[in-house]
């Protein structure tokens, strides 16, 4: 077992981590799974010594090699290691063995925004404003470091114990020189900007497009351009016609329209004043940005968070007993 320590003074070792088990219900006695994705699974773990909780992402090395994701996963770890923001998930440590790589991350006990949105249908405006403001802070931090995020959606937003929002999943993030463009086709169909679909090259502006889509989805419960077939979604995105439900406020419609402008150079956040213009839009007039950064605002999202066992705000997933094959090619030397 190799281990990497990322926080000086911390004594977290892989052997210290033990799984947290469901205390009741259908899966009683099984390890708690917080999420499953194409990438692997995230499990809830704790230490017997200090009792803190961690979300541990585990990915099969064989799977990474078969999907040619070696570079990607190494980069994901390097990015997460370099990031220190209250609005982005923290990576505490990274480990590997012969079968898996593990990323030990901060546990956000409030659960996914996506789960909450499904529960209540759509968010009240004050909740949507607060969640989006947290994302703006995360973007501001990332863009200052020349990192595009490229995968904004409710599934990638977690609530911490205070109801503050944190960005997770840096699988599509990319470091970019200012002024450069990249041509990779990435993202989730409903959130993809028109210039990506048209393969015209894209940059930081795609993050502002997706911010507009997110605001719409938080307020309406579903994104503005949707269909069961990705091709139909892309056609709607290229048409660019936003149809707002009658209950949406004028300020909300205004900020969404400005973020979802087809031409990247005209998009709010991507003109000469940069992200400042987003912060100054009237939809955010009740947000004190300084207080938000200081975590001195009472988060309206707290109403969405349930009290109970530490996994109560998460969907439950069956345990997967199968063990991945071993993998020895050595691509993970630097992990
Ligand atoms: C959870 C709960 C939690 C953290 C996470 C998931 C983190 C997931 C994650 C996944 C990634 C990544 C960063 C974070 O790059 O507290 O359900 O692929």
UniProtKB/TrEMBL annotation:
InterPro entries assigned to the protein according to its UniProt record, in alphabetical order: AGC-kinase_C, Kinase-like_dom_sf, Prot_kinase_dom, Protein_kinase_ATP_BS, Ser/Thr_kinase_AS, STKc_cGK
Keyword set includes Kinase: yes
Start and end residues of each Protein kinase domain: 28-284
Position of the signal peptide: none
Domain AGC-kinase C-terminal: 285-335
Keyword Transit peptide appears in the UniProt entry: no
Recorded GO MF terms: ATP binding; cGMP-dependent protein kinase activity
Any Pfam family: Pkinase
Binding site for ATP: 57
Sorted UniProt keywords: ATP-binding, Kinase, Nucleotide-binding, Serine/threonine-protein kinase, Transferase
Family that this chain belongs to: Belongs to the protein kinase superfamily.
UniProt name for this protein: Protein kinase cGMP-dependent 3
């Amino acid at each position: 077992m190799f281990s990497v320590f990322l926080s000086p003074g911390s004594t977290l070792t892989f052997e210290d981590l033990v799984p947290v088990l469901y205390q009741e219900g259908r899966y009683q006695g099984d390890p708690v799974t917080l999420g499953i994705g194409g990438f692997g699974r995230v499990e809830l773990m704790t230490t017997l010594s200090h009792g803190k909780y961690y979300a541990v992402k585990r990915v099969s090395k064989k799977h990474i090699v078969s999907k040619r994701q070696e570079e990607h996963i190494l980069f994901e770890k390097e990015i997460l290691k370099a990031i220190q923001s209250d609005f982005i998930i923290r990576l505490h440590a990274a480990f590997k063995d012969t079968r898996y790589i593990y990323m030990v991350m901060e546990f956000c006990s409030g659960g996914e925004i996506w789960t909450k949105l499904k529960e209540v249908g759509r968010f009240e405006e004050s909740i949507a404003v607060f969640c989006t403001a947290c994302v703006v802070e995360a973007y501001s931090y990332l863009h200052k470091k020349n990192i595009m995020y490229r995968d904004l959606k409710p599934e990638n937003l977690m609530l911490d114990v205070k109801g503050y929002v944190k960005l997770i999943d840096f699988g599509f993030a990319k470091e970019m020189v200012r002024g450069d463009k990249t041509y990779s086709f990435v993202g989730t169909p409903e959130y993809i900007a028109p210039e990506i679909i048209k393969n015209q090259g894209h940059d930081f502006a795609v993050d502002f497009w997706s911010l507009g889509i997110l605001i719409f989805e938080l307020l309406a419960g579903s994104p503005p351009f949707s269909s069961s077939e990705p091709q139909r979604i892309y056609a709607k995105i290229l048409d660019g016609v936003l149809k707002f439900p009658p209950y949406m406020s004028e300020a909300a419609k205004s900020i969404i329209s400005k973020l979802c402008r087809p031409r990247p150079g005209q998009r709010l956040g991507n003109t000469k004043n940069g992200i400042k213009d987003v912060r100054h839009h009237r939809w955010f007039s009740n947000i004190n940005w300084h207080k938000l950064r200081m975590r001195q605002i009472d988060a309206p999202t707290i109403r969405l968070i349930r009290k109970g066992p530490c996994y109560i705000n998460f969907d439950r997933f069956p345990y997967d007993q199968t063990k991945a094959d071993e993998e020895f090619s050595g691509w993970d030397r630097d992990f």
